[in-house]
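Task card 7
Instruction: Convert sequence to structure tokens.
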Amino acid sequence: MRPVDVVVIGAGQAGLSGAYHLRRAGLEPDRDFVVLDHAPRPGGAWQFRWPSLTYGKVHGMHALPGMELAGADESRPSSEVIGAYFDAYERAFDLRVHRPVEVSAVREGGGGRLLVETSEGTYATRALINATGTWDRPFWPRYPGQETFRGRQLHTANYPGPAEFAGQRVVVVGGGASGTQHLMEIAEVAAETYWVTRRPPVFREGPFDAEQGRAAVAMVEERVRRGLPPQSVVSVTGLPVNDAVRRARESGVLDRLPMFDRITPAGVAWDDGRTVEADVILWATGFRAAVDHLAPLRLREPGGGIRVEGTQAVRDERVHLVGYGPSASTIGANRAGRAAVRAIGRLLERAEPAAERAPSVPA
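Output:
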């Protein structure tokens, strides 16, 4: 069992931001804090994105603190561009990320410490920055007859790009940005495409200004404060309209159907008698927060979420969730990493005798 002041779980945007601010506060990696990541290489969830998602198609990628991402080739896959950027960032600030390391559970350890149980042993930590994101928890809705479908079902998490759907009939389920991106590129090669969503999509024309951004974040933050499962910021902003979206709407690719009522061996069906035959159902239905390893701490509220004030879990001041709820955007993760480290600095100052105190965090 190894004692440290802080464990950071996850080395995506949120985790690297937290690690950067710990470094700035004077804490030393592998002595005072440790960063654990289960992915095989740098890049966070970006390394798993489909090849056709080029860097030029990425919406609102914000640079990590202290190092800009400049001169990137917009035609290259985002997985390559951002993976290389994260790799350079880790090396530039000597963050010494441990990977691949699986975290199985976080438990109460006594003496004010938490026990972080991992595939490389157990860490006894005074504070935790949980930056595990959502990519590992794809959400698969369940519908009657789903197990009878003779075609292929897959999720955005396993989306391989449009080429595999050439000549096929494809039902895309989901009204978010991923669903529309998948649909528009699949429509160019598929025999037929159908777009199915639970609610009518909301398209947003014009620029998205700072005031609208703050309002969207506030809506997500309110849910988290009430202990409800967070919605993504994108879910409350609407779908941005660009030239590709306009063409797809004009051509009928983005003509939306209401959610079907059941799945049949040959496709999907509605209670009003409509049916669609399909070879593939692509579930672009989003992700849930990957926080199951925190279950032993009993942080969840009756509403199903973890109640958070700022970045701090209300039920345990040692636990900070960065990249959760309102801080799930790239710029939000940067700010949340800084806020979490400041709060942890205050916690460590209270917990440690003056002679053993960790370096204080700049105000």
